[in-house]
Amino acid sequence: MKAVRFFGHKDVRVVNDLVKPVPKGDEVLLKIGGAGVCHSDLHIIDEGTVVGTVFTLGHENAGWIEEVGSDVKDYKKGDAVLVYGPWGCGHCKPCQQSKENYCDHQSEMAYGGGLGLDGGMAEYMLVPSSRLLVPIYDLDPVIAAPLTDAALTPYSAIKRSIGKLTADEYVVVIGVGGLGHVALQILNEVSASSIIACDVTEEKLAFAKELGAAYVVNSKDANAAEQINKITGIKKAKVVIDFVGATSTIDLGTKVVGLDGDLTIVGLGGGHYQYNMSGFLLV
């Protein structure tokens, strides 16, 4: 079996002699149809963020079931599925609440397939439990694979604030990139709030309009915050989601989020924010 394997810091090799896994119990063997390349893969390769083991890369995966273990009841060969990324223990309270990324035992185990355990940059992938699979029916696995990360990440951020995203409120999306453009699409499906999209390029702002943003603001503008606050009025934005995470975008978010609002920083842009508690209105 051919696979892309991580052997250590900046050591990635294509191998051709891996043994095809055989599923047991609740395990499922997946024939890979699509495996995404994420920036996290570059962190693993270039920075050695996952060390001490050799494994197959790829944590954004979709394909067709090739074989199931004896305990699998809900899936059969040929079913098209995607693979949920974080693999918790499956038994603790967070895992039972579908929050595997908060698994109580995360420090004792690998994070998931392609993140310490064998992932989907291979012909076949062994998934440890059928609970980690999501049916995709007729959706092309090549299209579906990135949804396990590029869609799940913004969805999780949006879900945290879903109760505040009412028709009389505004939500600001900062950064219309790989995650931000998906966030716009999700917001249009699950929220009635007016969307304000921010980016530094006019092309992405035009794209944001196509994806349903009611307003767009170039965050390079010196008065970007003033433009947004003029749109939202005295209440300001109820939800701000920052998909950049740079110091400038964090600063912008704090200037436009309203009282009892949510500022969620998803991007890992290395930003910092300094604040003075005396400058906050305490209620």
TrEMBL record:
Molecular function (Gene Ontology), one example: zinc ion binding
Superkingdom in the source lineage? Bacteria
Q: What is this protein called?
A: Propanol-preferring alcohol dehydrogenase
**PANTHER family in the record, alphabetically?**
D-ARABINOSE 1-DEHYDROGENASE (NADP(+)) (PTHR43401:SF4), L-THREONINE 3-DEHYDROGENASE (PTHR43401)
Sequence ranges assigned to domain Alcohol dehydrogenase-like C-terminal in this UniProt record:
178-280
Family, per the entry? Belongs to the zinc-containing alcohol dehydrogenase family.
Organism of origin: Sphingobacterium siyangense
**Residue limits of the Alcohol dehydrogenase-like N-terminal domain?**
26-135
Which keywords describe this protein according to UniProt? Metal-binding, Oxidoreductase, Zinc
The protein's required cofactors:
Zn(2+)
